[in-house]
Specification:
Keywords: Cell membrane, Disulfide bond, Glycoprotein, Immunoglobulin domain, Membrane, Receptor, Repeat, Signal, Transmembrane, Transmembrane helix. One of its GO terms (molecular function) is transmembrane signaling receptor activity. It is found in: Cell membrane. InterPro entries: Ig-like_dom (IPR007110), Ig-like_dom_sf (IPR036179), Ig-like_fold (IPR013783), Ig_Fc_receptor (IPR050488), Ig_sub (IPR003599), Ig_sub2 (IPR003598). This protein is mainly beta. The strands form 14 sheets. Strands 3, 14, 15, 17, 18 and 19 form a six-stranded mixed sheet that branches. β7 and β8 form a beta hairpin.
Length: about 725
């Protein structure tokens, strides 16, 4: 039988033509269409049903039966199935159909469209070549060479385009025909007769047309006529046969020559968040399998987009109005409630002819950033939007940057240049810049003194009545909730006037003896240093002493009888002198022990003077004798002029010095020296023969009974 199957894509079904009568046993070419190449279905159509055979061979011997099953994408259908034989509907509606006649069979379920036709043949030949059903592109196809009497076959040989591709005794072979493969296959079977002669049978040629694994995809858009700026979902529509559910498809979408999204994905859909009108841009998609690798491309299509004019233009700021701080960036956000396509945004400041900025983009909003806003940038701002239908303006908003406070300056104002205890001073704190209100706080050694607010900005002050404890470092702080700033430290020294000093005597007695050393101590309990102390005896100044670091001061006095009377002291640190109360002191005569010491000292001094006078007389006599020749001149003499002759006979003149009144010597006496006696002796000498020179004097100071000199003899008038 020579059967030629011709498929016309313009027809709903294939057409089978038998151009010649059934031939004899000569081999004939068998066109076996396992599954016809599917025609393209409109987008949104139900997937095709798949017709299955059991046994899975589309060629059988006459007298055999084949059972047909109809399967959709969910499962095998067991009822409500429509069957067709050579395009004629069959009455049977069960899920399976048993056939024994050759022809084209198709089926359809309630959840699928009509399947591709399957051509099943029942042949009267002794040997047939069978191919497994169904077979998809790049899938394996099993070939079986089957005879009516299988036990007589000793060897089977398979050929492809007349070339041997394999042989076996009872095994099948597997081939992998490509889609639209034009190759022909056949097989031979050989055996032995009883008499030992061999025989060979040849099957009819078989041409296998393999079904597409999946049809070329079709790109669809939803909605089909979107509004510009709205989202659009693109779908790459194709499907896999039910038996290939384990095969996975991947999809990729393109706009012109640029891939959209993340590239290849397992989803057949891609959502474009906003669709813009861009002339004649075309879209298309691709679908592929990984194993085996099959790639198919959809036709290109254009998507028409509807444009909407802009409306409801609005200007917003970031940070919001009233929260912008000087130095921060200001972001002006211009947006439209409606409008599609390319929109041109511009920003303006009232009173300025030039725009602050301009942007053109496919978006419903745009931003303009103004860096480091200053105080002078305050004003009324607005924006405009235009998508070729004319600009639409927003409302105007006022923007005033808030200024953080600058570092304040602390000044201290008082009634005089030097602060004095009891004065009232004004602490004034002022920040040159800063948005009101400003809260000022005042500190003394970081301890809060108080606070004052400046609701309209400017300065604030705090009055302080000074005490001695207020000396130290002062500072102030400014805070306007945007920034806190502390001033530099300002030092303030409080001068405290001296209090009334207290005079004390040491030893603390009301009656003292002549010759005692008395310590007068004067001390003011309060007062800033330095303090100058004055000591008085009957309002006559005795002396003064300074206390550079405060405290008291002392003055030592060696007592005489004239020192009886009233004593007082005064203290002064430049802020006013203060006097102490008067202290009385009575001086009595010398004590016995001291009188004895003085008497012994005076007698010793007189004896010394007499000894010196005698020595002077002897020296004069010696010189007289040497001049007269009694004594040689060169023995023990010193060269010099000779004395006058008249002096040689004159006796030595010993003049007695006049007694002088002892004057008191004031000095600080160390403790434990109460028993010491100081003596002062004056020695007067007259040199004979020297009328041109006044008499010489010698002043020596002795200490104690031993008469140890404290200073050498000095010449004096």
């Amino acid at each position: 039988m020579f059967c030629e199957h011709r498929w016309d894509r313009s027809l709903a079904f294939g057409e089978t033509v038998f151009p010649c009568p059934r031939p004899g046993p000569a081999p004939m070419l068998l066109w076996l269409l396992l599954i016809l190449a599917p025609g393209r279905q409109p987008a949104g159509a139900l997937p095709k049903a798949l017709l299955l055979l059991k046994p899975p061979w589309s060629t059988a011997f006459e007298g055999e039966t084949v059972t047909l099953f109809c399967k959709d994408h969910h499962s095998l259908a067991w009822e409500y199935v429509s069957w067709y034989h050579n395009e004629t509907p069959l009455r049977k509606q069960s899920g399976r159909l048993q056939i024994s006649k050759s022809g084209h069979y198709r089926c359809k379920t309630q959840r699928s469209s009509l399947s591709d036709p399957v051509h099943v043949q029942f042949l009267p030949d002794w040997l047939v070549l069978q191919a497994s059903h169904p077979a998809f592109e790049r899938d394996k196809v099993v070939l079986r060479c089957r005879g009516k009497e299988e036990e007589d076959i000793m060897e089977r040989t398979y050929y492809k385009n007349e070339e041997k591709i394999g042989s076996s005794y009872n095994s099948n072979i597997t081939v992998y025909p490509a889609f639209n493969d034009d190759s022909t296959y056949r097989c031979t079977a050989s055996g032995m007769y009883i008499l030992g002669m061999s025989w060979t049978e040849t099957s009819r040629p078989l041409k296998i047309q393999v079904q597409e694994l999946f049809p070329s995809p079709v790109l669809t858009a939803s909605p089909s006529w979107p509004i510009e700026g709205s989202p659009v979902t693109l779908t790459c529509e194709t499907w896999l046969p039910p038996l290939t559910s384990r095969t996975r498809l991947q999809f990729c979408f393109f706009k012109e020559h640029r891939a959209l999204g993340a590239g290849w994905s397992n989803s057949p859909e891609l959502q474009i968040p906003t669709m813009w009108s861009e002339g004649t841009a075309s879209y298309w998609c691709q679908a592929r399998t990984v194993i085996p690798r099959i790639l198919k491309t959809s036709p290109r299509s254009q998507i028409r987009v509807h444009r909407v004019p802009v409306s409801d233009v609005n200007l917003e700021t970031q940070p919001p109005v009233g929260q912008l701080i000087e130095g921060e960036d200001l972001v002006l956000i211009c947006s439209v409630a409606a409008g599609t396509g390319t929109v041109t945004f511009s920003w303006h400041r009232e009173g300025s002819e030039r725009s602050l900025g301009r942007k053109t983009q496919n978006a419903l909003s745009a931003e303009l950033r103004i860096a480091s806003v200053r105080e002078q940038d305050a004003g009324r701002y607005y924006c405009a939007a235009d998508n070729l239908d004319g600009p639409v303006l927003s409302k105007r908003i006022r923007i005033t940057p808030r200024v953080p406070v600058s570092r304040p300056v602390l000044t201290i104002r008082g009634p005089r240049s030097q602060a004095v205890e009891g004065d009232v001073v004004e602490l004034r704190c002022e920040a040159q810049r800063g948005s009101p209100p400003i809260l000022y706080r005042f500190y003394h050694e970081d301890v809060p003194l108080g606070s004052s607010s400046a609701p309209s900005g400017g300065e604030a002050s705090l009055n302080l009545s000074l005490t001695a404890e207020h000396s130290g470092n002062y500072s102030c702080e400014a805070n306007n909730s945007l920034r806190v700033q502390r001033s530099k430290m300002v030092s303030l020294s409080i001068t405290v006037p001296v209090s009334h000093p207290v005079l004390t005597l040491n030893p603390d007695v009301a009656q003292a003896m002549v010759g005692d050393v008395l310590e007068l101590r004067c001390e003011a309990q309060r007062g800033s240093p330095p303090i100058l102390y004055w000591f008085y005896h009957e309002d006559v100044i005795l002396g003064n002493t300074s206390a550079p670091f405060g405290g008291g001061a002392s003055f030592n006095l060696s007592l005489t009888t004239e020192h009886s009377g009233n004593y007082s002291c005064g203290a002064d640190n430049g802020l006013g002198a203060q006097s102490s109360e008067t202290v009385s002191l009575n001086i009595t005569g010398l004590c016995k022990n001291k009188v004895t010491h003085i008497t012994v000292g005076v007698i010793g001094c007189l004896l010394s003077m007499l000894g010196l006078a005698a020595t002077a007389a002897l020296v004069g006599r010696f010189r007289t004798q040497r001049k007269s020749g009694a004594i040689p001149r060169n023995i023990g003499s010193v060269p010099g002029p000779d004395p006058p002759a008249q002096a040689l006979h004159s006796p030595p003149s010993l003049s007695r010095p006049a007694l002088m009144e002892l004057q008191p010597l004031y000095s600080n006496v160390s403790p434990g020296d109460d028993d010491l006696v100081y003596s002062q002796i004056w020695i007067r000498q007259h040199r004979e023969g020297s009328p041109g020179f006044p008499p010489g004097t010698c002043n020596r100071l002795f200490r104690g009974e031993e008469g140890r000199p404290l200073r050498p003899c000095t010449a004096g008038p």
